[in-house]
Design brief:
five-stranded mixed beta sheet, Helix Hairpins, Chitinase A, domain 3
């Protein structure tokens, strides 16, 4: 599997590191305790609690491995070095939806930090990838499942 760069803001990287620490120190202990308790129930061949705890352990270890891989490939966005002339990961972009004449604001972040309901869109999303590399006042066509959205870039911060 080819590992790719995972972009983080400084705040996002700190949050990801804290989550990994929590998973490794707290959640692992909790799951191990559940397995130990389930073992005390006896016969493993018909022990649903044990099976469930082992499945939870497998999912937890998969999540830890994924988080570790993402942090190994972390690239921190230096927000002080961002250009306000061109959209990049870390940019906050105000756009005008030309069809509906509505202003929208997006912060372009790495996929690990994406939170579309709070205006943080992934650099890999249709809108994010279409905006990257574009300039102020440029009109951008974004292909989405329902068709094409036209945005005019009003500001880049």
């Amino acid at each position: 599997m080819v590992e790719k760069d995972v972009f983080y803001t400084k705040e996002g990287l700190l949050k990801a590191e804290e989550e990994l620490d929590y998973l490794k120190s707290v959640r692992r202990r909790e799951v191990a305790e559940r397995i130990k308790t389930a073992l005390d129930y006896g016969d493993l061949s018909e022990n649903a609690e044990y099976d469930q705890a082992k499945n939870e352990q497998a999912q937890l270890e998969e999540k830890i491995a994924k988080q570790e891989m993402m942090l190994r490939n972390a690239k921190v966005i230096d927000e002080d070095e961002l250009s306000t002339d061109i959209v990049n990961v870390g940019s906050t972009v105000k756009v005008m939806n030309l069809e509906y004449k509505e202003e929208e604001e997006f912060t372009i972040v790495g996929s690990a930090e994406a939170d579309p309901f709070n205006g943080k869109i992934s650099n890999e999303s249709p809108v994010g990838s279409a905006l990257i590399g574009k300039n102020l006042n440029e009109v951008v066509d974004v292909e989405v499942p329902s068709g094409v959205i036209k945005y005019e870039i009003l500001s880049i911060a």
